[in-house]
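Q: My collaborator sent me two sequences in one message, no labels, and asked for predicted structures for both. Can we handle them in order? The first one she listed is below.
A: Yes, handling them in the order given. First sequence, followed by its structure tokens:
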Amino acid sequence: MTTLRKVMLVDDEEDIRAIGKLSLSRVGGWVTVLAASGNEALTKAAEEQPDLILLDVMMPGMDGPTTFNRLREQDATARTPIIFMTAKVQKQEVARYLELGAVGVIGKPFDPMTLPKEIRKLVPE
């Protein structure tokens, strides 16, 4: 069981970050940290120590799976639960993300009103 207080959303699209922040903070009741890139995620995750990271798969520069592996190499985030967020939710894609060690995959676009409920299903509090 993980107590979720602080959730980090990593997505290169500003509108996704804005909608995600509203959903996570207002509907979910969590402190929300945003990052716009894999590199920013590595720095902010180490500083902020989120209880959960929502990670976009397709980002310019460092993509989600690469960012995931780098987060796992940092002591501060080696055991932080990570959920991938992607429009590509075919079975083989989802299986690949779960094999990496993600706790789950949430499809995009997501419903801001139900996103926290989807997260709680994957990471029970």
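Q: And the one she listed second?
A: Here it is, processed independently of the first:
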Amino acid sequence: MDALDALQNRTASPRLTEPAPSEQDLQEIYKAGLRAPDHGMLRPWQFLVVRGEARTKLGQIFADNLNPGSEEEKAKMLNSPLRAPLIIVAVTEFREHPKVPAVEQVCATAAAVQNMSVAIHALGYSSIWRTGKAAFNAGIKEALGFKASDEIVGFLYVGTPTLAQRTVPENNVEDYVKVWS
């Protein structure tokens, strides 16, 4: 698949199953992420891979830290990491730099997630980028080995789609692009 096709036709898949990408494919996916634009070449990103039984542990971390209001909500938290065979947690570990503010470091991590998402699609798999309350919870960050001051940019759920690729309406370029003079 060429780059333009991958970029213009990638969609998110909310339902994912086995197989997850092979180890060889994962290496290609990570390499794509590591090529993201990064002002100052700070490499502020870390990627935590969660698969197998670790997904159950992640669900327990969610339930322990997000204070579910009901048993139904707790069950949803426990089961949410089981929606895909593999999850890549993308985290910005901020670096002090006089010319690169925190927002640019988050943007670099987000660009890395986008690159990985496109690479996943190009390799014939699918993904969905999720955040939610879990991404902003200090207890969850610490349970995953990060500092409360680090920022979870997203949980990239990865696998094989169970549904046909959904149709996404075409955007009218003129609605979003203006020429300034």
